[in-house]
Write a structure and sequence with these properties.
The complex is a heterodimer. In chain A, helix 8 crosses helix 13. By secondary structure, chain A is an alpha/beta fold. In chain A, the strands form two sheets. Chain A has a six-stranded mixed sheet with strand order 4-3-5-6-11-10, with helices on both faces. Chain A has a five-stranded parallel sheet with strand order 2-1-7-8-9. Chain A has 17 helices and eleven strands. The longest helix of chain A has 20 residues, at 10-29. Chain A folds into three domains: 2-65 and 176-250, Rossmann fold (3-Layer(aba) Sandwich), CATH 3.40.50; 70-174 and 260-305, HypD, alpha/beta domain 2 (Rossmann fold), CATH 3.40.50; 320-364, no CATH class. In chain A, 42% of the residues lie in helices and 16% in strands. Chain A has helices at residues 2-5, 10-29, 41-49, 69-72, 75-86, 107-112, 124-131, 146-162, 176-185, 198-204, 210-216, 227-243, 262-271, 301-305, 320-324, 348-351, 356-364; strands at residues 34-38, 60-64, 90-93, 117-119, 138-144, 167-174, 193-196, 220-222, 248-250, 272-279, 283-292. By secondary structure, chain B is α+β, with helices and mostly antiparallel strands. Chain B has one domain (2-69): SH3 type barrels (Roll). Chain B is 28% helix and 36% strand. Chain B has one helix at residues 50-69; strands at residues 2-6, 11-16, 19-24, 37-40, 43-47. In chain B, the strands form two sheets. Chain B has a three-stranded antiparallel sheet with strand order 1-2-3, with no helix packed on it. In chain B, a hairpin with a 2-residue loop joins strand 2 (11-16) and strand 3 (19-24). Classes of the chains: A alpha/beta, B alpha+beta. At the A-B interface, helix 2, helix 8, helix 10 and helix 13 of A face strand 5 and helix 1 of B.
């Protein structure tokens, strides 16, 4: 474990803390309070686990953005999956989605009542299930950002190549830069800098944030997941703001290239096309989703099974939407820790292991 | 995760902390035994650049040294 120790050295953390405080002090002298946003569920968990918010001065806040794919998925998507399950289709899904409430039920509840819901670690298992002898009709719940979109594009290509006849995907795939643009434009959110996701950036490349920086003059720094990576990322964002700079800075060069993973991008472009997408809390963002291309319609669960994803009804009183926009911290929701806990979640931010509310509940209470 | 075998069919086996996992390698331009890969949902999405990792570790080590020396 020597390799990881180097990314967690307490002396280096103290060094970075002093730089963080110095930059915050420069901003304070200029009378400025700034708001940073991390937009990756894995960053959210790491920041909570390592207590990194405690390192921030009073004039610096760090909020969580819409970085958890399960959390931003609209309740109506779960409703469509439940409709498919009711029709006898086998639903294959990542585990955290089964406990996310739709408008009236969860997939876990449907499973308890006899629906066939199979949890997969890898989506490749879902295709294998659909291709086994005597296989059932299988729908994989394709939910995720670019990190997941790339594997799912490859999986779709495999399904097409194999001529799979009992496999399709219900797609709720989303792209991060469009959501960041929507947040940068929203005066209610008032974000001054983005701590950009690590593995999404590995797929799309550091250059994907350039238009955002040019248009909104907002610093974008890509950081890895280790504590020193995150601290250094925050230092960079504050120093950019204190200097009056706004650039894309890639601090995760051990994985992220400027151009990203071209082969993954090609697979995505081949199988999927941009569409408008509904984000829980953010509403519909034009061009921020990816749908299965028309020529692969047989693999698109909506077209194959004639189901439509319509806007759902979130649970009354649930403030996941405001948490996802960074407008409130999780404990400002009246249900947090009382009516809504990881054991009995009301909203998706408490369900997912990457959700802001789950992270806050586990580490920050 | 470190790749310990690469098959002809675009799959391989990766190891971390003594545990082995099947990984799909179809998103990588090239993958060879001994490469460290970032794996998401059973798919390798990128390779780890060892030289860049070493450089970053050296930078953090230098920060730690300066902190201990009080020369920050």
């Amino acid at each position: 474990m020597k390799y990881l120790d180097g990314f967690r050295d307490p002396d280096a953390a103290r060094f970075l803390r002093r730089r963080l405080e110095a930059a915050a002090a420069r901003l304070a002298q200029a009378g400025r309070s700034v708001r940073l946003m991390e937009v990756c569920g894995t960053h959210t968990m790491a920041i909570a686990r390592h207590g990194l918010r405690d390192f921030l001065s009073d004039n610096v806040s760090l909020c969580s953005g819409p970085g958890c794919p399960v959390c931003v998925t609209d309740a109506g998507y779960i409703d469509a999956a439940l409709e498919l399950a009711r029709r006898g289709v086998t639903i294959a899904t990542f585990g955290d989605l089964v406990r996310v409430p739709g408008s009236s039920a969860t997939l876990a509840e449907a499973r308890a009542e006899g629906a066939r819901v199979v949890v997969c670690y890898s989506p490749a298992e879902a295709l294998a299930l659909a291709r086994a002898p005597g296989a059932p009709e299988v729908v994989f719940l394709g939910v995720g950002f670019e990190t997941t979109v790339a594997p799912l594009a490859l999986l779709l290509r495999s399904a097409v190549a194999a001529g799979a006849t009992r496999f399709s995907m219900l797609a709720a795939l989303k792209t991060v830069p469009r959501a960041l643009a929507a947040l940068a434009e929203d005066p209610e959110v008032g974000v001054n800098g983005f701590l950009c996701p690590a593995h999404v950036s590995a797929v799309i490349g550091a250059a994907a944030y350039e238009p955002l920086v040019e248009r909104y003059r907002i610093p974008c720094t890509i950081a890895g997941f280790e504590p020193l990576d995150i601290l250094f990322g925050l230092v960079d964002l504050l120093e950019q703001l204190a200097d009056g700079r706004a650039c894309v800075v890639n601090q995760y060069t051990r994985v992220v290239r400027p151009e990203g993973n071209r082969k993954a991008q090609a697979a995505i472009a081949e199988m999927l096309e941009p569409v408008d997408a509904a984000w829980r809390g953010l509403g519909v963002i034009p061009g921020s989703g990816l749908a299965i291309r028309e020529r692969f319609a047989a693999f698109d669960a909506e077209r194959r099974h004639g189901v439509a994803v319509r806007p759902g009804r979130p649970a009354p009183g649930c403030r996941c939407g405001d948490v996802l926009k960074g407008k409130i911290l999780p404990d400002a929701c009246p249900m947090f820790g009382g009516a809504c806990t990881p054991e009995h979640p009301v909203g998706p931010c408490m369900v997912s292991g990457e959700g802001s509310c789950a992270a806050h509940y586990k580490y920050a209470r | 995760m470190k790749l310990v075998s690469v098959g002809a069919d675009g799959t391989g086996v990766a190891e971390v902390a003594g545990a082995r996992y099947d990984v799909q390698l179809g998103l990588l331009e090239d993958a060879a035994v001994g490469d460290y890969v970032i794996v998401h949902a059973g798919y390798a999405i990128e390779k780890l650049d060892g030289a860049e990792a070493e450089e970053r570790l050296a930078l953090f080590a230098e920060m730690a040294r300066r902190e201990r020396d009080g020369s920050g």
